[in-house]
Design brief:
By secondary structure, the chain is mainly α. Helix content is 77%, strand content 0%.
Length: 96
Amino acid sequence: MLRWVGLGAIVLVGLLYARPLQSYFDAKHDLARRTADVRTLRAEKRELQHRLAESSTGEALTEQARRLGLVRPGEKLYIVKGLSAWVHAKATTPAP
């Protein structure tokens, strides 16, 4: 009989500790996931800061302006059409 009481006490203690242990392991898993998220976000932030620093240079700004079709004062903008057809025709024409 004393064995059953002892076994019952051990089972009761186990049941009382089950929920806090589950909460602990859930919190530990959540912390590991969030730590990985923070690590990923820090790497992304470094990459974005690097891209921002590169895009702020005068050369990069000039290149972006050219892509938008902007020209400096005094320059003339020429639009060449049919360039891909010319390249294709040149590639298919046999060399002399």
